[in-house]
Amino acid sequence: MKNLFGKALLDDPACTKSTAFTREERKQYGLRGLLPYDVASIGKQKERALENMRRKNSAIEKYIFLSALLDRNQRLFYRLMIDHMEEIMPLVYTPTVGEACKEFAHIFRRPQGLYVTPEDRGEIESVLGNWPERDVQIIVVTDGERVLGLGDLGANGMGISIGKISLYVACAGIYPARCMPVMLDVGTNNQTLREDPLYLGYPYARLQGDAYLSMVDEFVNAVQKRFPKALIQFEDFSTPNAFEFLERYGDKVCCFNDDIQGTAAVTLAGVYTSCRITKKKFSDLTIMFLGTGSAAGGTAELMVAAFGAAGLGLQQARERLWFVDRKGLVVSTNETVKPRIKPFAHNHSPCDFVGAIADIKPDVLIGATGVPNTFTESVVRQMAAVNDRPVIIALSNPTSHTECTAEEAYRWSDGRVVFASGSPFEPVQFRDKRFEPGQGNNAYIFPGIGLGITACSAHRITQTMFLAAAKTLSERVTDDEIAKGAVYPSLNRVREVSRSIAVSVCQAAAHDRLAQGEVPENVDEHVQSLMYDPLY
């Protein structure tokens, strides 16, 4: 217990057991008189915490309560989250984390994570050295420029890094001391934030151009020196920067972008699973995206690889994928097509969104716009007109930004849709059937990727690993879950899913000779032995 004693032990969030210290421990560690009489197990403490949390009248108040619990008793927080995943995850991450980020400076209690600002340039390695832990293996870093669908939230985006770290621990069992949330606070172009007297961030316009890139370079290089085993997860950067960093660092350091690659893998998994419902072959699908940002572009690129694995040539694969933006169908004559979307701009006459669905007859429609209500009744009904079982995946979050709700999708398709979303929705009763749509939550993917990387000490993350993760996630969906309309497993099984994904990542790393550590014969047993289980 870090050789802590008395009140210092009680106040240490990583070591405390609070009222669960036994009589013998109270005597041994100088705790007699500092605790009430009852020796309360973690189970009893969990009941008390749940009761107090549920008394709160809003999701943001519950978020504040849980954040305070993490500050004072780490193991109790994670035990609560693991045992009540479906209830707690939407409170510590999407959709509540969006509101928490908007209000971050106003609900701030205690500092969590590491902040790096332009004033630290030239000394970022030294700043990293102030972090109290030395064996850091997972880093989630953001610059807060594109937080969910909410835009530039500056230093308030730290809430995203903190939330993702909690998912690494709860969903995959990465030890908390091995995780570090980071905010690259390079300023904000959100004038309202800069004028807020309670704003805690660097109160200037965003660093841009070479000055910005050199600062990110310095950060990445400093991580390699201070924490050479660390995986870097880039989170909620603007689309150009997100792709820039993947190209800049992907072949040099162990890193990935969750908005691009994590979203791609979880979406691909949902499409794989949908084939079990529609009875269509994956290799025969035509897929349409609404939106041309990092999530949509990254998903299309992973799907090209998936089609390739299914036997299609590169051009064949690209021809199965179509894009629609705010102007309508993206076609080859468009002069302003983004470079990464250009391979998917095919020969076709320009047309609007509904017309594109009518002409191309996509089997799957994927929304990644960040704009609410873009899957209108006309759009959903047109998908239902060209498919017996239309597949619609509305990825945007938080819930207020989703392309359509679950209830709308089922009602407008007369209950025939195979629906998934990036935000959670309650079950939907349509006529005589109850649907329990799955949430395409990146928490199904990135924690297992991280666990697999740490389990085999892989020094790179590859597209093959994300393909393996998507396949594994899809295979973990039960027939009973599919019968309820879900294309993803219950969140209550996410640790089991993460373990399976970690195994597949280890095997992919070993196959590609990227594992620096020896991968044992019983990989599953090895992975399970590494997972943090918060008990007293």
Question: SSE layout and pairings?
Answer:
Layout: H1 7-11, H2 23-28, H3 42-54, H4 59-72, H5 74-83, H6 85-92, H7 96-102, H8 104-107, E1 114-116, H9 124-128, E2 138-142, H10 158-172, E3 179-184, H11 191-194, H12 209-226, E4 231-234, H13 239-249, E5 255-257, H14 258-278, E6 287-290, H15 294-309, H16 314-319, E7 321-325, E8 328-329, H17 353-360, E9 364-367, H18 377-386, E10 391-394, H19 406-412, E11 418-421, E12 428-430, E13 433-435, E14 438-439, H20 446-456, H21 463-475, H22 479-483, H23 494-511, H24 523-529
Parallel strand pairs: 1-3, 2-3, 2-4, 4-5, 6-7, 6-9, 9-10, 10-11, 11-14
Antiparallel strand pairs: 7-8, 12-13
Domain Malic enzyme N-terminal: 70-250
Binding site for (S)-malate: 146, 397, 441
Family: Belongs to the malic enzymes family.
Could you name the CATH homologous superfamily of the largest domain?
NAD(P)-binding Rossmann-like Domain
User: Approximately what portion of the residues adopt beta-strand conformation?
Assistant: 5-15%
- Looking at CATH, which topology of the largest domain would you report? Rossmann fold
From the alpha carbons, calculate the radius of gyration and give it in angstroms. Answer: 23 Å
Strand order in the sheet with the most strands: 8-7-6-9-10-11-14
Shape: globular
Termini Cα gap:
12 Å
- Total helices: the number is 24
The main sheet comes to:
7 strands, mixed
Number of strands: 14
Output the CATH class name of the largest domain.
Answer: Alpha Beta
Low-confidence stretches: none
Percent of residues in helical segments?
Answer: 40-55%
Instruction: Please identify, by name, the CATH architecture of the largest domain.
Output: 3-Layer(aba) Sandwich
Number of domains: 4
Structural class: alpha/beta
Global mean pLDDT: 96
